[in-house]
Amino acid sequence: MNSIATSGVPRFVGQSVHRKEDPRLVSGNGTYLDDVKLPNMLHVSFVRSDVARARITRLDVSAARTAKGVHAVFTAADFAPAVKGTLAATMFMEMPIATLRPLADGDVRFAGEAIAMVVADSRYLAEDACELIEVDYEVLTPVVHFEHAAADKVNLVHPERGTNVMSSGGVQHPELEAIFAAAPHVFTETIRQDRQSQVPMEPHGIIVRWKEYDRELHVWSSCQRVHEVRATLCRVLGLGEHSIHVTQRDVGGGFGQKGAMRTEEIATALGAYLMGRTLKWVEDRRENLVSGGHARLDRITVTMAFDDDANILGVRFDHLEDAGAYPASGNIGGMIAMMFSGPYRMQRIGWSSAAVFTNTCGRNAYRGPWNLETVAREQMMDLAARRLGIDPIELRRRNMIHVEDLPFKNAGGATYVGVDPESCFDQALAMLDYDDFRRQQAEALASGRLLGVGVSLFIEPTALGVGTLIGTEAAHVKISLNGHVTVALGTGGHGQSIATTMAQIAADELGVDFADVTVIEGDTDISPIGGGTGGSRSGVIGGAAVHQSASKVRDKVVAIAAHMLEAAPNDLEVAQSRISVRGTPSRGVSFAEVAKLAYVSTAKLPPQTEGGLEAITRYSTPSITWANACHICTVEITPTSEVKLLRYIVSEDCGVMINPMVVEGQISGGVVQGIGAVIHEGFVYDDAGNPLTTTFLDYLIPTTTDIPVLEIGHMETPASGPGGYKGVGEGGAIGAVPAVRNAISDALAQVGSPGITGPVRPCDVHDLRALQV
Amino acid sequence: MAEMSVSVTVNGSSHAASIEPRKTLGDFLRDDCGLTGTHLGCEHGACGSCTVLLDDKAVRSCLLFAVQANGRDVTTVEGLTRGKGELGIVQQAFMEGHGLQCGFCTPGFIVSVTALLRDNPNPTHDEVAVGLSGNLCRCTGYQGIFKAVEIASRRIRETGDRP
Q1: For residue A540, what is the DSSP state?
Q2: Fewest CB within 10 angstroms: A215, A220, A704, A733, which?
Q3: Are B46 and A251 inside 8 Å of each other by CB?
């Protein structure tokens, strides 16, 4: 990446500069989806199924059609002729997931599925009209419990599939059976995660405007990927990409839930297109909780064999995931297999995995969708340590990969480079003072208090997607006439501070002030085609693209400046928007002066130099970018079985940090989501498939009173890509779950309990108390 | 539904309209006053995103009807700036402390923190935790929010300014 006239030490990368996003957001001047108001805009509301599985025997929308302020009511039959292609997300089009439909057609397959769509003058009137729609059901036995779904041949979520199994796979390892038979220590445990929802604070929403005389569909979307929205609507509506313009402005969180289009969003687009009008749909919280997307409902049975020195000899796991009725993602088993060995030597793995349909809300991506590998492995390490009678830290040390082992090919076929798990492990243990904690723990036990410590280590595949759209990103870097810089990207930040971090990179690479750079994302008319934001990719892949493009523009600036100054390019240096002769700062020209030549006085440019000062380059990641971290949690279990977190420590290696403040924000947010997964969250259905946790009073997410002050340490092993950055968006949510669970189990082990293998929410407190005695 | 006339002073300006009595204060602020800084995150009084000051008390604008605010004084997040692009103390502290990521819950937090610090300019960590436990944030893990309150609290003590 280095070219002539480097500006030397970075001024902005590595600094916790304040965010460009913030002044508008803290003053109430952001532009979230519901803040956009277009002329003559109509409002959408959906009638949703009250039952999990039923045939629709009667659907009467006539009263709603004539209700006050109502412009249209759509049912499946109304949309059918307009649907020209698949509603599935691009990434999952070829996968055997369920066939999506804009509205329920003849039957309903989960409680919350949209049946009819009302369009009215206001949301109030649209909801009034929804009350007038009558639906009669012939209720059928639903498939609610995923453990029983595969065996159920009578009650089928998708009858046309002939089975409730969505997909299955696995790899047998030829040596495992003999290893398990001969090994001195073999442990088996089943570990589970409960159903969660991502809970972005801003629910989904979309505005679709059909401009008849432009033949253009303009879409405003609360999404993570504008180009995905455009691609999906092109397929569904049969329009060309040039006919669809998608705009994303401020987005109130996504965590994976907004990566693919909702069927309700597609229905809104169909309605706008058919009516030739502007329609807005803003999801309410209940809709988001019952139909916005669920995640994490998994079960994994792991068997691990150890020799007498506590070395891992072999592993087998059988994994089952609940895909719900309409998943927006495929079976995660392959990813679990790839990452199961984590930072350890675990060279023989056999596995199986299946994803099954149930009559529940569909599964979709959630911050580290494959996290079960770390959740299960790290709990197994603690369980094995307890049964082998050695310290869990010692067990991990004996099996850990060292820096000297790199590149290291793990049992799942992935090759690690640029990671240093041991350094994070050491740093985190030192931050805790592990030996001192063990002393405190013993003293506490003597006085009747139960303390525990839990560790988790993981290696994280960030910026995945080699050879796919999410493995590539382009940056359009442009210097305008006054020397200011705009950077257009195909990312879609929704809280990740991309407008700030990418400006830091561009400012350093170009040699301009951070204040002089503006980053534009999330607009298909401006943003180069790209994969949006998700999968811990924007800093790594987007950042690399910014490096490339900015470097190319800088080279041109220097070449023109050299011509203007009659100096050799190698004798020049760039700093603070000025190019000058090294050692003679008075001999120089400003970016604005160079830009004037490039855009206006083009006759004065050096020979064979094209006008303009801009570049678009595309970066395609050649491999996964590996990050790693160690989490340590300490807890106290009170006499009333309340879990109190005492300390939470993270040592993270996300490579070169662009903005440490942003890095720590990403880690903290992920960790607290992981804490929530253990002590609070769980989306509950009753046996009839009725959702029970449909408000924030039932579906609990962590609040200020649930969490300790996080302590974060950093290691910086640079990645091999431009800038040396690694992804950091998902790791917090991956590492926290087993760290908290291990701490709870460690505390309980002191009173002879086998520990926990799933969440311990307030409603599980009784169970926890039972485990103590 | 028969409409009622309502007149509310919002951020010092009078806003009068004829509205249905079922319209929430949150919707009135967003739709009738054009103040979209107040966000609706749950519409059942649990997330706190829609928090505004009603006669200087923090309330949830999704749980109040606009007609209940008739003749009263409302301050929204927009009203906490110092004008001309200058941020208020709490707003500035949220930026400095990285108290926000996606920013959707932020207006509610800023209003709640303002009310908290007006009552108690030097709160302990536990008092902040309890005081803000009715506001939900999914991005920050609350770490930056605690930091922001600390910054704002210090600045209020140093300058004597009202948040």
Answers
A1: I
A2: A215
A3: no
A644 touches chain B (CB under 8 A): no
The CA distance from B156 to B88, in Å, is 11
With CA atoms as reference, the chain A residue closest to B37 would be A28
Taking CB atoms and an 8 Å cutoff, what residues of chain A touch B22?
124
| Mean pLDDT, residues A737-756 | 94
* pLDDT tens-digit series, residues A169-210: 999 999 999 999 999 999 999 999 999 999 999 999 999 999
Cβ neighbors of B108 (< 8 A, separation 6 or more) are: B38, B39, B41, B47, B48, B49, B50, B51, B135
Length of chain A: 773
CB B19 within 8 A of CB B3: yes
Q: Please name the amino acid found at residue A526.
A: I
> How many CB atoms are closer than 10 A to CB A588?
19
pTM over 0.95: yes
- Whether residue B81 contacts residue B38, with contact meaning beta carbons closer than 8 Å, is answered with no
The answer, yes or no, to whether residue A773 has pLDDT greater than 60, is no
Q: What is the largest CA-CA distance in chain B?
A: 52
What is the interface size between A and B, counted as CB pairs within 8 Å?
Answer: 173
pLDDT tier at A3, thresholds 50, 70, 90: very low
Two structure tokens written together for A269: 């687009």
Q: Hey, which residues does A589 pair with through a beta bridge?
A: A579
The rounded distance, in Å, linking the Cα atoms of A442 and A747 is 10
Rounded Cα distance between A323 and A363, Å, is 5
Tokens at A600, concatenated:
């206006």
The b/e string for A12-24 (b: 16+ C-beta within 10 A; e otherwise) is bbbbebbbbbbbe
- DSSP H or E segment with residue A135: strand A134-139
Q: Report the residue count for chain B.
A: 163
Instruction: Give per-residue pLDDT as tens, A667-723.
Output: 999 999 999 999 999 999 999 999 999 999 999 999 999 999 999 999 999 999 999
Residue A618, helix vs strand vs coil? strand
By Cβ distance, the residue of A21, A285, A702 closest to B42 is A285
Residues of A with CB below 8 A from B62's CB? none
DSSP H/E element including A555: helix A543-565
